[in-house]
Amino acid sequence: TQLLEQSPQFLSIQEGENLTVYCNSSSVFSSLQWYRQEPGEGPVLLVTVVTGGEVKKLKRLTFQFGDARKDSSLHITAAQPGDTGLYLCAAPMEYGNKLVFGAGTILRVKS
Amino acid sequence: NAGVTQTPKFRILKIGQSMTLQCTQDMNHNYMYWYRQDPGMGLKLIYYSVGAGITDKGEVPNGYNVSRSTTEDFPLRLELAAPSQTSVYFCASSYGGLDGYTFGSGTRLTVV
Asked: pLDDT under 70 in chain B at which residues?
């Protein structure tokens, strides 16, 4: 059982469509991070959200942290082929600055 | 600015062989980590270190060992390779606090 559940597992859409992916947990977290991973590479940090209800925007990507700090969403507007990749959410565990990762959402944007 | 460098990128091992996955970072980060990534399972923490000379087990440490003699280097040792260790291994480092991880580009290991 994953501490962080991500949905959907896989998403295939056409260029220009909008989409939302989710990261849910029964635990409360002090912060949450989103990463994007391209094939053959390591994950790259996109954003860190800290405050319940917080919304952060990164160009066409909008990240939201749930009011109760148990869940988060990533919304992409007008998806482009360059958005293709594995999107991972991660949250801190206790001592040691350790992160626990969700299983990820594989996004494929077709042109 | 190299960031986190992992070597090798690919390796095939026979069952029972040993190897060391190398990881070095040039950002003077205190925190370093080893994760393995299997399809559909996300990243699982193997070992981590909060500074030179200090290491601790993560979620899936069996079959692995680490050392941290310097701030820069954090090698991962597989002593008796088993097919269950076939995976992609990622090393990461962090400044701590709310800073995210910087990952290396990974080592794809196959044990046959």
From this structure: 1
- Give contacts of A 3-62 with B, CB under 8 A: 4, 9, 31, 33, 35, 40-45, 48, 50
Element of type H or E holding A76: strand A71-76
Alpha carbons B65 and B57: distance in angstroms, whole number: 9
Place of tokens 């995210």: B100
Spatial distance between the Cα atoms of B78 and B83, rounded to a whole number of angstroms: 12
Nearest CB neighbour to A43, from listed B31, B96, B103: B103
Contact call for residues A42 and A27 (beta carbons, < 8 A):
no
**pLDDT for res B96:** 86
pLDDT tens digit sequence for A21-42: 999 999 999 999 999 999 999 9
Residue B104 bridge partners (DSSP): none
